[in-house]
Specification:
With 599 residues, the chain is mostly helical. Among the domains are: 6-120, Potassium Channel Kv1.1, Chain A (2-Layer Sandwich), CATH 3.30.710; 312-343 and 365-478, no CATH class. It has helices at 9-12, 16-21, 31-35, 37-45, 62-73, 85-94, 106-116, 122-132, 138-141, 144-166, 190-193, 198-211, 215-230, 234-237, 245-266, 276-289, 293-304, 312-315, 330-350, 353-357, 364-383, 391-398, 410-422, 428-435, 445-452, 459-480, 506-547, 550-563, 580-597; strands spanning 4-8, 53-57, 168-170, 176-178. Keywords: Coiled coil, Ubl conjugation pathway. Residues 569-599 are annotated as: Disordered.
């Protein structure tokens, strides 16, 4: 904005016009001319013309600044404060009110006040920077901004050091240590900086980084600044609201976009400097405002570095794209997971190889993988009900972590089951592809029991569940009696669904799979009943140990071992022929459970 200040020579002073035209410029009767080199030059240029006024274009500070300069020239008292010192510095430079034209001129007095008073106080420096917003770029050329930013950074460092000393205390052993639980009072300046415009705030934070202010303090200042300005738009900060992009961008404009990008560039590199919930809020705003790709990728990388601290609500980023798209922005979450996996790999390369291969549950990388895998499974279960979520996207996100990240597949099975329920139009090959993500050996007993009766799963997956459940039960029985000669029976079984003859018709294949499924269910029930019998015999044997002598115990133990027949087989060498006891148990199971397991 161009300010035009008129010097009305004929109306301001009665005889000033005649005297100026007479070129009595050196007389002390004309203080405005004698103290301002610019006005003196303008009058000299128009000595031969009958001028009645002079124009001062682009006067910094406008008419208010000129009014202060005129008062100074004519000896009218006024106070130099932090609210007008920036204007006085700029207007004195514009009017050339320097020591060359008058001793103790306005420029030198304003500079002295700025250096000796303003730069000693952080609050006054912040106020001066506020007034400099309308005085740029002249205020920057006069180094008013740089002097104030340097003073603010220095004061923050001093407060930081003083606060650190105040938290020092002696321990019981007499050693000096830092009390981390004590409240840090050295960051009181955070709220003061939040009144600055984003460009000046950026310069202050950059100077603080160079001076060595704590990253935690800088991060807290960034959080406070972003919440004060961005939280004014609830739709930008609240994940529950999903307004349309065009309306949001039209109301916010480039100013909010620039603010998000600037705050992102100022974020400290340390992981714990800002909370991850703030990073997710910033990323959600960046996605909504369509910030630059570099800004969004930087936020995604920072989030991935501490993803184990995130919650499910953080990952649920609304989709602000087209109406037919998914409810949540799954592409952004997928990129975050990829960054997390790549970062985990890079950290593992740096760490000691022996420490990595030790599979220690206390390993930081392993613990973070476990947390992120549980978080991912919960996220998959949340987005699985979305009818617009494509199978490929769901599978890509589910498979974004390495295989060893999940020690238990119950959460993944639950998410896949929800997806199958919400997408009943999937073909059998698509269901098989989806269920291949599940390692049925890593299902718990409850999840395995649910999967064995889940009609939404493909038949091949149900057979695998039953097979691994059978193997688990048999191995449990063998572990109870390690001296027995029987071997795990899973060696004599195979999942024939993966090895069916290519010459068989699909109908024969289906009939064969159903028959094997029924046989496996019967075998599972039979093993459970045998396990109960073994537990009863074990209790009886313990009772014999307490009541009988050693000889009687050995005799009773040998007799009971002779009666035991593992897995319904007469001997280890004839493992394929069932015993009479096994046949009687099978017939009993078939009579009692045929209605339950038949299809």
């Amino acid at each position: 904005m161009e300010y035009i200040c008129w010097i009305l020579l004929d109306s301001a002073m009665n005889n000033l016009k005649k005297l100026l035209l007479g070129l009595h410029l050196q007389s002390s009767s004309f203080p405005l001319v004698s103290r301002s080199g610019r006005i003196r030059k303008l009058v000299a240029e128009h000595r031969d013309s009958d001028i009645s006024r002079m124009e001062l274009l682009n006067l910094p500070g406008g008419a208010d600044s000129f009014d202060l300069a005129a008062k100074f020239c004519y000896g009218i008292n006024f106070e130099i404060t932090s609210s007008n010192v920036a204007q006085l510095c700029c207007v004195s430079d514009f009017l050339e009110m320097t020591e060359e034209y008058s001793k103790d001129n306005l420029g030198s007095r304003a500079e002295a006040y700025l250096d000796s008073v303003v730069c000693k106080s952080l609050e006054m420096c912040v106020e001066v920077l506020q007034w400099c917003e309308n005085l740029l770029p002249l205020a920057d050329e006069l180094k008013i901004v740089s002097r104030c930013t340097d003073a603010i950074a220095s004061k923050a460092c001093v407060e930081q050091i003083a606060s650190s000393f105040s938290r020092l205390e002696y321990s019981s052993s007499g050693r000096l240590h830092m009390n981390k639980q004590a409240k840090c009072d050295g960051d009181w300046w955070i709220e003061d900086l939040s009144v600055l415009r984003i460009d000046l705030y950026q310069r202050v934070i950059a100077t603080m980084k160079c001076r060595g202010v704590r990253p935690e303090s800088i991060g807290a200042s960034l959080v406070d600044y972003a919440q004060k300005f961005l939280a004014k738009k609830p739709s930008l900060w609240n994940a529950s609201t999903q307004p349309k992009v065009d309306l949001v961008v039209g109301s916010v404009g480039n100013e909010q976009r620039l603010m998000v990008e600037t705050i992102t560039s100022l974020l400290p590199t340390e992981k714990v400097a800002v909370p991850i919930s703030f990073l997710f809020g910033l990323l959600r705003t960046a996605v909504m405002l369509d910030c630059t790709v570099a800004c969004r990728l930087d936020l995604e990388r920072r989030i991935a570095s501490q993803l184990e601290m995130a919650t499910l609500d953080d990952l649920l980023i609304p989709s602000f794209r087209h109406a037919g798209d998914t409810l949540f922005d799954v592409d952004t979450v997928h990129r975050i997971l990829v960054n997390f996996s790549q970062q985990d790999d890079s950290e593992d390369d740096v760490e000691d190889v022996s420490a990595y291969e030790s599979d220690s549950p206390c390993s930081p990388s392993q613990s973070s993988l476990l947390k992120v895998s549980k978080l991912l499974d919960n996220y998959l279960a949340e987005i699985a009900a979305d009818a617009n979520l494509k199978l490929t996207k769901f599978m890509v996100i589910a498979d974004s972590l390495p295989a060893y990240a999940r020690t238990n597949h119950d959460g993944l099975y639950r998410a896949i089951d929800i997806y199958l329920k919400a997408h009943q139009g999937l073909s059998d090959p698509e269901k098989k592809r989806l269920c291949k993500l599940i390692d049925f050996q890593k299902l718990s007993q409850e999840a395995g029991a649910h999967a064995a009766q889940n009609e939404r799963l493909p038949l091949q997956s149900i057979v695998q569940v039953l097979y691994f459940e059978q193997v688990r039960l048999r191995n449990a029985l063998l572990c109870s009696y390690p001296d027995d000669d029987h071997k795990p029976m899973y060696q004599s079984w195979r999942i024939s669904s993966g090895a069916l003859s290519a010459a068989m018709s699909p109908r024969d294949n289906y009939a064969s799979l159903r028959r094997e499924n029924r046989e496996l269910k019967l075998e599972l029930a039979r093993l459970r009943m045998r396990l109960n019998d073994l537990e009863k015999d074990h209790v009886s044997m313990k009772r014999d140990i307490e009541k009988s002598s050693s000889y009687k115990f050995i005799w009773s133990f040998s007799k009971k071992l002779g009666r035991l027949n593992f897995f319904g087989h007469s001997s280890s060498r004839a493992s394929t022929s069932p015993s009479k006891q096994s046949q009687r148990t099978d017939s009993k199971i078939i009579e009692n459970m045929s209605s339950r397991y038949s299809r």
